[in-house]
Every structure is written in C-alpha cells, then in structure tokens.
UniProtKB/TrEMBL annotation:
Record keywords, A-Z: CBS domain
Lineage, highest ranks first: Bacteria, Bacillati, Actinomycetota, Actinomycetes, Micromonosporales
Location of the Cyclic nucleotide-binding domain: 13-103
Protein name: Nucleotidyltransferase substrate binding domain-containing protein
SMART domains: CBS (SM00116), cNMP (SM00100)
Protein's UniProt keywords contain Nucleotide-binding: no
Transmembrane segments: none
Entry-linked InterPro entries: CBS_dom, CBS_dom_sf, cNMP-bd_dom, cNMP-bd_dom_sf, Diverse_CBS-Domain, DUF294_put_nucleoTrafse_sb-bd, GlnD_Uridyltrans_N, RmlC-like_jellyroll
Species per Swiss-Prot/TrEMBL record: Paractinoplanes globisporus
PANTHER family per the UniProt record, alphabetical: CBS DOMAIN-CONTAINING PROTEIN, CBS DOMAIN-CONTAINING PROTEIN CBSX3, MITOCHONDRIAL
Entry-linked CDD domains: CAP_ED, NT_GlnE_GlnD_like
All copies of domain CBS, residue ranges: 208-265
Keyword Cytoplasm included in the entry's annotation: no
Pfam families per UniProt: CBS (PF00571), cNMP_binding (PF00027), DUF294 (PF03445), DUF294_C (PF10335)
Length: 606
C-alpha cells in the first residue's frame, strides 16, 4: 500500500490529492500483469470504466496498426475514454512484460476529485473537443451532421418545389425521376430558372440534377469532404446501407476550414475563365494542404484531396486551351505515378501520358502536332504551379504519347522481351495509370499489361524490378544511409520506405489484372486473392501509411516555412519512438519481400 501511495503520489495527476484521498485511491488499486504482446485495450471495446498507470515495462499505442505513442513507467492511459464515455479507437498493447495499476473511476470515491489535474480534460471531452488525446476534426459521422430530406414529386411544379424548400428552411429537395434520384438545389434554381431556361410552372424534374451524388451515413466528415471536392458539389445525399436516402449534408454543415477551403479552391478552378485566373486559384493549394494537416485531417485524405484538385486543374486547362490537333482526334489524358494512385505528396511532380485513336491510313500522322499541343498544355500546368516530371514522364514525350495501336504494340514488346532497355520500368509506370479524360480509350495503356496473357518470365522479371527497392535496414543507427554527395549520412524515406511497398503492390495489381485505387487498396486485394497473407498485407499497409504520413508532415512543414522539401532525413534527428518504429517497419517489409521472392510461383497458383 505504501509503495503504491509513494509511487502515485509523486506524479501527476495524483500529486494534487490530499493524504486522505490518496489513501482512498490506493485502496482501489488493482495490479494487472501483461505478457509481451498482450492486448490491454482493444479497439472494439464498447466502454472503459477505469484507467491504468504503468508500473513496470512498456506499452505501445496503435492507430490502425501504426504506433502513435509509447507508454513507460508512470504514464497514465485510458482516462480520456473514461472521462468522455467514448469507446476507444486506439489499441494499447504490451511491448514487453508489464505491470499496470488499474484504478476505477476516481470520481466515484474521492472526496475532492476536482484536485485531479485531468478535470480540465473532462470538461473538454464533454464538449466533444477531445477524444483519444487528439482534436476531433474531420472525423465526425455524417449521421450526426445530416439534415432531414425534403421531397418533391416528379410532376410538382418548380414553384411548389421552391415553396417546399423555403418552408422547411432547407437549401435542396430530392425528387424521384424515371432515370433515378435527382436533387434540386439553389444552384439549379439560379442556373435554370433565374436565366429563364425553365419556367416556374414547369415540372420540378426539369431543374433537377440527376443522378444525385450520394454517400453512406456511416461515412466520416473527411470522406464527405473528399467526395465533394472530387465532384465539385456542395450537397450530398446521405443513404443508409440499403441505399435509401435518409438525409442531406451541405458544405455549410461541415463548417470547418478543413472542409471549406478545398471546395473554395475547386469552385475557383471551375470558375476560372483564363489560365491566369486558374493559376491564382491553383496557388491556394499548398496553403490549403497545410490547413488540412493542421486541422487533423488524415494523411490519406490530404493526398486524395490533393489529387482531386490537380485533376480539376488539368481538366480546366484542357477546357480553356484551344488545341486544333487534339480536338481533331479522339484522345485521352492519363495520369501516372502517385497522382494516378491518388496518394501524391505535397511536392510531387505530375507524370502524364497521352493516347489517341488511330487515324485513317490515308491521313498524315498527327503525332508531331499532337505532342506540340500537349507541350502547351503542360506549360499551362507549370504556370499553375504544378511541376512536370523531371525524369521525362510527360505527355509530350514520344515515349509517353502514342496512338492506341502504338501503346498496344509497345506493351506487347515489353512483355515479349522484358530484358530490352526500360521495358520493366515502363511497364511498371504504365501499370500505375489513371485516365482522366475519355476513360475507355485511356485504358489502352494498361489493358495489355493487366489482362493480356503474360509469360512467367515477364512476371518474374517484373517482380525482380519491384524487389529491387529495398528498405534501408542496416547497422549504422539501424539504417542504411547515403555515403556520399549532398545527402551523406541521410536516409531517403521515399525510395527506402514508400517505394518497396508501392512496387510490390503494383506487381500484385499486374498479376491480378486489377490496378484500381491506392497502394492500400491493391494490398487488400492481394490478401483476398492469396498473393499475400492477411498479416503480410497489414504489415505492408502499416509501413506505407507510417512513412507516407511522415513524409507528408515533413514536406508540409517545409511548405509552411518557405523552404525546399526533401525526402531525406537525418536518423539522429528522429525521436527514439520514430526510429524504433521505422526500424521495425523496414525489417517487416523486408521479411515480406523475402517471402514473396521465395514462393511467388506457389502464390500465383492459388
């Protein structure tokens, strides 16, 4: 008893208790032992009614597999969940054999609980400001934010629809049409009724936007932000699991800066009538990414918003620029690399490709004029502050701009002879592609690589290329670092941390014939198809998310400070927890690489 009193009484928040309350506290203490690896708090627990203090050993706190905190002797945990009544969204696990002092809610038995120094935290949690120790920004469920649905019949007049919306104090109404669910917003009234295009006595369906954009009610505020930015809208219809509309969420309901700013940029992009105006709108992007980060939006969502805004900039450039040669032939602009996967870093450059329909044999080859006009488009992107690929993956290059038949012939050649110069590199780059315009034509880049009969020689060579990216595990401060040049002694987290996972996920995409989505999406499909075990997929995903978040944070700090970002880190500048987690992630990724290398053939036959 005395040992516990001396231990707890000497550290916050218990050092503010008087002697009698300290005795009461100690009487309620229970000692819990946890073996290394044991789960102390699970993510799926419904409610926590006690807190813990670490007496011996060490514990780790994980958010979706990523270590976010390390708890040592004297550290308290569980109190935020206890005080707020919120279920835990983090997992706490013993990193080594540990003893913890378990204490039930002290407010129930202390004479003066207000002397505990975490009572200020309690007030914050009751206001919804804190949970799991972090500010709740962008992760509220839409079910908590949505507004009631206002409905109109298809044959109701525009006047009746407007009256119904006004009477409900709403800004939109839903209408069922023969072609699907539609939505009527203030924008539709201004666009179609105020301009005289549709009269007030016309059926309401004539002013509706069909189909209405929907989102699930269990989605988060951040997910709604991304969907709004991607589609340039200010209303979403919230549906339950059966697809039935149950509410509407508006941009003004998501009233935080992390929601408003990207939509303002998107509106400015769509409203730009010149490249100069577009450049002014695009220049807001870096500051907005910083704002998103400061407001607690996840790294994955920041990357996706970034990609969506770049998509909008390129589309607007294409609509503003007059390009006769491109206009005369069916064509598709295609994004490559991290933008294609929708996971760029703040300073990522733009990798692009171009594919056009084969012209009639009787007509002259338009390639030269098409590439000239593509270069003008790329120059406009540069004016908007977007950097082109320094390694040449640009849509005006003959390597990355071809007719459909030219792309098909090139892909077949790479597959037939993967030893030819740059065959594997180009196959990998083309596999990471996402058509932005004319999607069916744009898929000609990848359909041969993803679906054409591929030899085992090609798949093995492509795997060797992917495994060439190795995590920097070593013995100098636990990492392999550069030994010369301007980055001497530094660790490149992009090539050593992201690239090994991206490359392996890309190989999985080619083998499975499905390259949709992000690196994490590909890893999950790899687990479902048997190309990876679930544990391997989780290991790779956790390592990717950790390194991506580190790099994004690092680059955004450079943007804020007006300095040039880099993907290089000095190992000694990383804190102990970060170094430890990186070391473990790198070794785990290397182990998965070894396993795939060893039995890749067996995995293909599953």
């Amino acid at each position: 008893m005395k040992e516990f009193a001396d231990f707890l009484g000497g550290q916050p928040p218990f050092d503010g208790l008087d002697a009698d309350d300290l005795v009461r506290l100690v009487r309620h203490v229970e000692v819990e032992y946890f073996a290394a690896g044991a789960v102390v708090v699970a993510e799926d627990e419904t409610r926590i009614d006690h807190l813990w203090v670490v007496r011996t050993g060490a514990l780790v706190v994980l958010d979706r597999g990523q270590v976010v905190d390390l708890l040592g002797v004297g550290d308290m945990f569980g109190h935020l969940w206890l005080l707020s009544g919120l279920p835990p969204r983090l997992l706490v696990r013993a990193d080594e054999e540990s003893l913890c002092l378990r204490i039930p809610d002290p407010r129930a038995f202390l004479a003066n609980p207000e002397r505990l120094r975490f009572t200020a935290v309690e007030a914050a949690t009751r206001r919804g400001a804190l949970a799991d120790g972090a500010v709740l920004r962008g992760d509220r469920r839409l079910a908590d934010l949505m507004r009631p649905v206002v409905r109109c019949a298809e044959l109701d007049s525009v006047r009746d629809a407007a009256d119904r919306i006004s009477a409900a104090g709403a800004s939109c109404a839903l209408v069922s049409t023969a072609t699907g669910l539609g939505i009527i917003t203030d924008h539709d009234f201004r666009l179609r009724v105020a301009t005289g295009r549709v009269g007030v006595d016309a059926p309401a369906a004539r002013v509706a936007t069909v189909p209405a954009l929907t989102i699930r009610e269990d989605a988060t505020q951040a997910a709604a932000l991304l969907r709004m930015v991607e589609h340039g809208v200010h209303h979403l219809v919230v549906c339950d699991r059966s697809g039935r509309p149950v509410g509407v969420v508006r941009v003004v309901d998501l009233a935080q800066a992390d929601v408003r700013d990207p939509l303002l940029i998107r509106s400015a992009i769509e409203g730009a009538t010149s490249i100069d105006q577009l450049a002014e709108a695009a220049r807001l992007l870096p500051a907005t990414l910083v704002e998103l980060f400061d407001n607690g939006v996840s790294a994955a969502h920041i990357g996706a918003v970034h990609a969506a805004i770049v998509d909008a900039v390129l589309r607007r450039v294409l609509s503003l620029r007059h390009s006769p040669a491109l206009g005369a032939v069916e064509h598709s602009w295609v994004l490559l690399g991290s933008l294609a996967r929708q996971e760029p870093l703040p300073m990522s450059d733009i990798d692009t490709a171009l594919v056009w329909a084969d012209p009639p044999e009787s007509e002259p080859d338009p390639a030269a004029m098409i590439r000239k006009e593509a270069w003008e488009v790329l120059r406009d992107l540069q004016r908007c502050g977007l950097a082109l690929c320094a390694k040449g993956a640009n849509a005006h290059s003959p390597v990355f701009s071809r007719s459909r038949s030219g792309w098909i012939a090139a892909a077949r050649g790479w597959q037939h002879d993967p030893t030819q110069e740059n065959a594997l590199l180009l196959s990998a780059m083309v596999a990471d592609s996402r058509p932005l315009t004319n999607v069916p034509l744009g898929r000609a880049l990848t359909e041969q690589i993803r679906t054409h009969t591929r030899s085992n020689q090609f798949l093995r060579a492509l795997l060797d290329e992917a495994l060439g990216w190795r995590p920097p595990t070593g013995f100098v401060r636990d990492f392999v670092v550069a030994h010369g040049g301007e980055h001497r002694g530094q660790l490149d987290l992009k090539s050593g941390g992201l690239a090994p996972v991206v490359a392996l996920a890309r190989w999985i995409a080619i083998v499975s014939g499905d390259a949709r989505g992000t690196t994490i999406d590909r890893l999950r499909r790899g687990a479902r198809s048997g190309l990876l075990s679930q544990d391997e997929a989780d290991t790779l995903a956790g390592g990717f998310e950790n390194v991506y978040a580190m790099l994004l944070r690092h680059e955004l700090r450079a943007v804020r400070g007006g300095t040039t970002p880099t993907t290089y880190f000095m190992p000694r500048e990383l804190d102990t927890l970060t170094r430890r987690h990186l070391r473990e992630s790198f070794r785990a990724i290397a182990l998965v690489q070894t396993r795939v290398d060893r039995d890749w053939w067996r995995r293909l036959d599953r």
